């Protein structure tokens, strides 16, 4: 049963508290209780548990998920035979308090020198080399390792990240704070603190009609990147990946300025070395004083059904680019891996399910996982958490 009214101050029956602690807001990925979203939770003598929950906004798209999660958690409690959820909506003051609890400010948390989020901007010299597929799958592979991963689709004109994750709906806006779409890893990958691995995605494609082209130029692109990084509440991320547009344009420079500690991952095909195209993407990093974390070679030799391999796009390019960038950058730039051409990767992308999740044993998924492993690592500074973590 549901109704939308503003509810009184919280009272929580201690018998219900443990079960309530297991129920998270699906977008904020934190327990409803911690977020101040539970207004009351009582257990009547007849076994009815009644919970009053305040939604962030009326028409919250995930209200039925919240109701279902509460019901299944509370039905596990001894003596509970029935669960009634009463839904209300936060007042502007309560939303303000929520934002304070979340530590949400309108600055870029990942630019903070103390931030423990590893930030990688994924770049390529030209379009169509699989940069977005690499970004989405490396993010998905990191999440499967129990990490919380943010993906900013900074390829504003050619956005494709929502499709690669099968995201259908737009983000929720709580006043000026934007909540990214949360894609949970199938299965049960967990972080050290027990929260599930997931990918949080923001893309201009979640705000616009897919059939309408985005025709923004310089300043508007910069503003969009600023909003994605400052107004979107990603929470405490282990990794942030940015899918840059192909080439070396305004957005790459904007990202470098806003996230000076970000590292660049260069994606290229095995044939690109000859033209120097992919190297330019890496060399831009030197100009913006970023470092290059490595080179990912994509569309490498395909394994044929008879076991032979077909080098459709040649071979050796990734290694050559890595060596050349090592020389230009003045620091070692490794080739992180070689992802074969693989029908499974293309099919998974079309179906909106990253291949590392849907076909984990496919040759492309194996290579992508190895790349993710190399950019992952223990959480910095003895597990200290990021400044954006509340309380
Ligand atoms: N290793 C691979 N095997 C098979 N297909 C691939 C592989 N990598 C990418 N593709 C396919 O190639 C196409 C282009 O990939 P993707 O969109 O990831 O490239 P992109 O570099 O991000 O392109 P753009 O910069 O133009 O957005 C997609 O259809 C994708 O499924």
List the helices and strands and how they pair.
Layout: E1 11-12, H1 14-21, E2 38-43, E3 48-55, H2 63-74, E4 82-89, H3 92-102, E5 118-124, H4 131-144, E6 148-153, H5 161-165, E7 172-174, E8 177-179, E9 181-184, E10 198-203, H6 218-230, E11 239-243, H7 250-258, E12 263-268, H8 277-287, E13 291-300, E14 302-303, E15 309-310, H9 317-329, E16 335-340, H10 343-351, H11 355-358, H12 363-375, H13 380-383
Helix pairs in contact: 4-12, 6-7, 8-9
GO biological process, one term: iron-sulfur cluster assembly
InterPro entries: FSCA_dom_sf (IPR034904), MIP18-like (IPR002744), Mrp/NBP35_ATP-bd (IPR019591), NUBPL-like (IPR044304), P-loop_NTPase (IPR027417), YlxH/NBP35 (IPR033756)
Protein name: Iron-sulfur cluster carrier protein
In short:
The protein has 13 helices and 16 strands. It has helices at residues 14-21, 63-74, 92-102, 131-144, 161-165, 218-230, 250-258, 277-287, 317-329, 343-351, 355-358, 363-375, 380-383; strands at 11-12, 38-43, 48-55, 82-89, 118-124, 148-153, 172-174, 177-179, 181-184, 198-203, 239-243, 263-268, 291-300, 302-303, 309-310, 335-340.
Structural write-up:
- With 391 residues, the chain is of the alpha/beta class.
- It has 2 domains: 11-102, GMP Synthetase, Chain A, domain 3 (2-Layer Sandwich); 109-383, 3-Layer(aba) Sandwich (Rossmann fold).
- The protein is built from 13 helices and 16 strands.
- The chain has helices spanning 14-21, 63-74, 92-102, 131-144, 161-165, 218-230, 250-258, 277-287, 317-329, 343-351, 355-358, 363-375, 380-383, and strands at residues 11-12, 38-43, 48-55, 82-89, 118-124, 148-153, 172-174, 177-179, 181-184, 198-203, 239-243, 263-268, 291-300, 302-303, 309-310, 335-340.
- It has an 8-stranded mixed β-sheet with strand order 9-10-6-11-5-12-13-16, sandwiched between helices.
- Helix 2 links the parallel strand 3 and strand 4 (82-89).
- Helix 4 packs across helix 12 and helix 8 runs parallel beside helix 9.
- The longest helix is centred in the middle third of the chain and has 14 residues, at 131-144.
- The protein is elongated, with a radius of gyration of 23 Å.
- The model is unreliable at 1-8 and 381-391 (pLDDT under 50).
- It binds adenosine-5'-triphosphate.
- Adenosine-5'-triphosphate binds at residues 124, 127-133, 155, 158, 160, 246, 298-299, 339, 341-342, 345-346, 349, 364.
- The site of adenosine-5'-triphosphate (ATP) has 21 residues, from helix 4, strand 13 and helix 10.
